[in-house]
Specification:
This protein is α+β, with helices and mostly antiparallel strands and about 150 residues long. Helices cover about 35% and strands about 25% of the residues.
Length: about 150
């Protein structure tokens, strides 16, 4: 398996895999979602605020994971102020259970560290929590969110 950072040439594949992932999670997706995802990726892969790692065999991309990079006020725990949110972690069903995602995430987190990212946040499905904990993520029960 080959691992690399995706480029804009991978847009069609990344959008397809993202939509497949979302279809597994939700019954009714909003109209135009694929176009919105493509627009976002086209813009942010280019400017570096989205890092997408892909794993491919000889014929196709079999897994992907993305980090959306942003800046906050630097503090004692993150002097660079660079943060990232982990999104769209997905492996094709027939490739699951072989440890590929752990390898892909380690690669992506190394790239984020090299780019100066000090904090990575993730929201995980229950089945993914053990993997994230093995990768060094810690659960925090006091996180709060409001959707506007």
């Amino acid at each position: 398996m080959n691992i690399r950072i995706a480029t804009r040439d991978d847009l069609k594949t990344i959008v397809r895999l993202r939509m497949e992932m979302l279809e597994e999670l939700a019954e009714d997706l909003p109209e135009g979602l694929a176009a919105a995802i493509r627009y976002y990726l086209d813009l942010h892969l280019r400017d570096g605020t989205c890092m997408c790692a892909v794993m491919e065999n000889k014929t196709e991309v079999v897994a992907k994971a993305m980090l959306c990079v942003y800046e906050v006020m630097p503090d004692e725990g993150n002097p660079s102020g660079k943060c990232a949110s982990l999104f769209s972690v997905y492996t094709l069903p027939e490739y699951r259970g072989h440890g590929y995602m752990g390898t892909l995430l380690a690669y992506l987190l190394d790239k984020a560290k090299d780019a100066g990212v000090g904090v990575v946040l993730a929201s995980a499905e229950e089945r993914a929590i053990p993997l994230y904990e093995r990768m060094g993520f810690a659960r925090e029960n006091n996180n709060m969110c409001i959707c506007l």
